[in-house]
Amino acid sequence: MIRILVADDEHLIRDAIAGLLELEADFTVVGRAATGDEASTLAARVRPDVALLDLQLPGPTGIEVARSLVTSLPECRSIIVTSHGRPGYLKSALAAGARGFLPKTVPAQTLVTVIRDVHAGGRYVDPVLAAEAISAGDSPLTPREADILALARDGAPVEEIARRVVLSRGTVRNHLASAISKLHAANRHEAAHIAAGHGWI
Length: 201
Prior knowledge:
Layout: E1 2-7, H1 11-22, E2 27-33, H2 36-46, E3 50-54, H3 62-72, E4 77-82, H4 87-95, E5 100-103, H5 108-119, E6 124-125, H6 127-136, H7 143-153, H8 158-165, H9 169-182, H10 188-197
Parallel strand pairs: 1-2, 1-3, 3-4, 4-5, 5-6
């Protein structure tokens, strides 16, 4: 039996994925989490074989949770699922120790197959995302900087960004300043434009 933790901040998606996985005879969902902190706490308690992590969890991101599980629960293999399949995120996820990376648009049977393959020791990267990552080059941004810059690109004020990523306004401003500096941009809007053009956000 493959024991699975499902972490997604959208209740409907989380429950739908868990319900889908429970239909498989060799799967059991042992935990459901809505935030990165919940995912880490639950993983320590229920010790899943596979952690299915949304990329943009509130608090620690899915990538950050995956990185922490490599040391705190090395027998657990992490898979990142996302509706934001950008090359920079893919590279960051693999560098953090995730064993799979796939968009939420994949068919249900693909997800099921990937979970079994990753549990057996394999890896899976969506082939379209892999091709884009190769052509995009390396991103200088951290995953958190990329998240915040993506929100800034949509015109969200600092207060709203801070609320959505569960950070203080000062911390958000620091991340934005760092991203602007790394991309040699005049402001956050130009930084977002540069990053988007390279496929980093």
